[in-house]
Design a protein that fits this description.
This protein has ten helices and 16 strands. By secondary structure, it is α/β, with parallel strands linked by helices.
Amino acid sequence: MIWNDSEQDLRTAAEQLRQGNLVAIPTETVYGLGANALDEAAVASIFRAKGRPADNPLIVHIADLKDIETYAYPNQWAYRLAERFWPGPLTMILPKKKMIPSIVSAGLESVALRFPAHPIAQKLIRYANCPIAAPSANVSGKPSGTTAQHVLHDFEDRISGVVDGGPCACGLESTVVSLLDDNPVLLRPGFITPQQLREVLPSLLIARGVEEELQKNEVVLSPGLAHKHYAPNAETIGLLGDAESAARYIKSQCITEPYAVMCFDGEEHFYDTSVILSYGRRGDARAQGEKLFETLRVLDDKQVKRIYINAEKCDGIGLAVYNRLLRSCGFQMIRV
Ligand code: TXA
Ligand code: MG
């Protein structure tokens, strides 16, 4: 079922959420696979539908600032971040109150809270009159869903429906910051950049695992840092450098089977393959973020055995794009 943003459809979708059913909801980042966060059985069905490991906690979405105190124990930083960035693409990890079921937080004593900016998400939370637990709406390990069609592709038979809010504006999941102790830590980069966060949190650290692969047995600050993410079915290899060098590298591999290339806009002519898609201009991380998951999904449908992605490493939103690409290619990122 696809609902639109009419009052009637939103009331119907919200009622489904209230009753403990799964409803995919649009947000400004990516679509979320939503359920009533206070209903353990409903939350369990999110994990089943996604095939999500039980040790990976969910984000709880709220639509009223004061609910930060209903579900968590906020500190000064939390209030200041909320004032500056909420509603918006920022998730805060805070000590959890008891009323959040432990299945939501995967047994941790903390909870991830986000107040999304998308008006449809806000209405659904308010109409359902409960907080909504929602991971990104994709089968676990696969690229996140940024349109209602992506969601239906992954979950058609397993959800009550999706509310179609059009393509997501950011296209990348929210920035995640842990505020659990004296050292605020960036766990996942996103549309809200480290530079912006440091205006409020001058001592912000970036977690190990954001820009590099974790070593075996390394302490993980967020379960999400340890899991496989955003990976197409094909073997995916990142190439860090200019287009000419990337093309030369691919040629040197003497590949006999069809392969795909994901490159920057206007650089298609460097490559010698028919399966080629661009994902935004070099240097334009905002545009890249918007197209990234969509492009990975389209390439995955082409049935190639290997995908090469030309990547760059930049600050700001660029860190979020690089982080997603690094994971898409299982950290096989080659400097060319
Ligand atoms: O933009 C978004 O954040 C989207 C939309 C739907 O809001 N949601 C999303 O959820 O990306 P998900 O489940 O795909 O990613 C949530 C991340 C995971 O990496 C998870 O490990 C981390 O947040 N997380 C959740 N609760 C946590 C906690 N209590 N402590 C540490 N990390 C946590
Ligand atoms: Mg996800």
